[in-house]
Structures are given as structure tokens and as C-alpha cells.
Design brief:
Length: 99
């Protein structure tokens, strides 16, 4: 599977902070609340992708609009559930599997 440059986790938290306008502490908080999932280097440094940067801006906008972290997480879980069901349906159709 080919990855886009947007998927590669190569950006440090300081740069992410500059790009998003969020403090490093706030970015770590969103990670603690399971809203963002950076990779870690061997030395433990967080590494983010451009997709993560976009996600952080989206999270910050939702928080500004009054949403709580659990609501944002729940919304993401629903999106994942729908995506998983669609993929399962496509695989079942491709392999002619019936339930």
C-alpha cells in the first residue's frame, strides 16, 4: 500500500505547535484523551503527520465550538464504525460471502 506524504509521521511537536497555533501542552492533552495518535521515535520523541496536523486543527475548532473531548472521540468512533461496515460489505461482495 502506497502512503501519501500526508500520512508519514515525521513532524516534531514543536513544528506542529507552530503550524496549528496550539501549545505543546494542549497537543499532549489531546493525545492523553485519545484524540490523536503520534508515533514515537526510538528516543521517545513524538512524530506527527500532516493528517495529524489537520486533525488537531479540527479538534481545536470543535473544542472552541463547545464540544467536549468525549464527544469528539465518540464522533470519530462512529465514523470508524461506518467505514468498517462499508469495507466489510465490499469484501463480502468481492468474495461473495453472505451473512
Amino acid at each position: 500500500m502506497a502512503f501519501s506524504y500526508k500520512d508519514k509521521k515525521v513532524i516534531g511537536i514543536g513544528i506542529v505547535s507552530e503550524l496549528t497555533g496550539l501549545s505543546e501542552r494542549k497537543i499532549r492533552y489531546y493525545e492523553e484523551r485519545k484524540l490523536i495518535f503520534p508515533d514515537r521515535s526510538k528516543g521517545g520523541t513524538r512524530k506527527y503527520s500532516f493528517d495529524d496536523v489537520e486533525r488537531l486543527v479540527d479538534i481545536a475548532n470543535k473544542m472552541e465550538d463547545g464540544m467536549q473531548t468525549f464527544e469528539i472521540r465518540r464522533e470519530e468512533m462512529k465514523k470508524t464504525d461506518v467505514r468498517d461496515k462499508m469495507l466489510r460489505g465490499q469484501l463480502n461482495a468481492a468474495f461473495k460471502i453472505r451473512k
